[in-house]
Specification:
The chain is α+β, with helices and mostly antiparallel strands. The chain has one domain. The protein has three helices and two strands; from the N terminus they run ααββα. The chain has a two-stranded antiparallel ribbon. Strand 1 and strand 2 form a beta hairpin. The longest helix has 20 residues. It is elongated. The two termini are about 20 Å apart.
């Protein structure tokens, strides 16, 4: 999947709060997917570090992209 296809997929299937993470594609092909998570102060919890739920949402989203790339398109799935 090229960047445009990946962005279109994310825009179409993600919940609004996950889209707010502003994940951007780096690479997506049959071997896997890499997304970039930009830093935003709102992602930090009271301890000053990025909240674990943010990383889990990013990892889950990357898995959706990786599976979609391997299947040649999005299919409803659990990750």
């Amino acid at each position: 999947m090229d960047d445009k296809e990946t962005i279109e997929l994310l825009d179409r299937i993600l919940a609004p709060w996950v889209r707010e993470l502003a994940l951007t594609p780096v690479k997506a092909d049959a071997e896997g997917a890499t997304l970039r998570l930009p830093f935003a102060g709102a992602l930090r919890h009271s301890g000053g570090v990025i909240c674990g739920q943010v990383f889990m949402a990013a990892a889950d989203t990357a898995m959706i992209v990786a599976i979609s790339a391997a299947l040649g398109g999005f299919k409803p799935m659990t990750t």
